[in-house]
Amino acid sequence: MAANTSSLRVYLLAGVKTTPCAFNECQARLTEQLHSEGIEHTIQVLFPYGDASRSLMRQLLEVKTDLSNRMRAGRIGGKYVWQQIKDTVKGEKALFIGHSGGGAAAYQAARMLEEEGTVRDFRVVQVGSPRTPIHPTLRERVSYFHSIDSLGKLNDPISRIGSWGGWTRSGRTVPTWNRLKYAPGYVEGIPTVGGHADYFRNTEPFMDMEAVCNLDKTIGRVRAWLKEWL
After folding, report:
1. What is the CA radius of gyration of the chain?
2. Per-residue pLDDT tens for 183-197?
3. DSSP string spanning 198-227?
4. Alpha helices of 37-141 — where are they, by DSSP H?
5. Continuous segment of H or E residues that includes residue 33
6. pTM of this prediction exceeds 0.90
7. So what's the pLDDT on residue 6?
8. Cβ contact 109:25 at 8 Å
9. In sequence order, which ranges of 37-183 are alpha helices (DSSP H)?
10. Among residues 47, 91, 37, which one has the least CA distance to residue 226?
11. Cα→Cα distances 198→22, 49, 80, 218, Å
């Protein structure tokens, strides 16, 4: 990737029951890579639903409010992120990387910022997230990564929650259900080791037979998708 001196704000968004140190290695790896490529940046970690000390049930109910494509639906996590960053991100590129429920909050926050004209140039990366319907005008700015097994089958149960589907009708034909009508513009499976909580692990036993850790696989896929943008 060619060197780029434009300013970039990166937001790492946690899901439910996440410990404060969960993104430490991811943040360090991104900082190293972006610095080596001459990309001026800042990285901020946010907890849209609070950290591991909060009630799991309360956090799950809040995530549910972000799993909608309606313009003014609850968006509890999205609104929290929007409130935290709206006064600091103006005029810069913004990259939102959300794990689990954080991916839903990332999309909703980016959408709100775009609606009000605060941020125009952004990308959203959802990792192991519930399926959040993406508005058609924004789908090419959103990517979705999920864990797969050795046979290429989805094996992260959180990635089965929610829906991208919608009814489609052409002319006077009978409406048909399109399960990908509101899907992100880019969807890819990552052969990780472990479970839903392990996309950003970088030590044993979260390495494959070639000693490649989950963190490197996840960041590698994300960086490849962002190649033309950064």
Report:
1. 17
2. 999 999 999 999 999
3. GTT--STTSB-TT--BHHHHHHHHHHHHHT
4. 56-64, 76-85, 101-115
5. helix 24-36
6. yes
7. 61
8. no
9. 56-64, 76-85, 101-115
10. 37
11. 10, 19, 25, 10
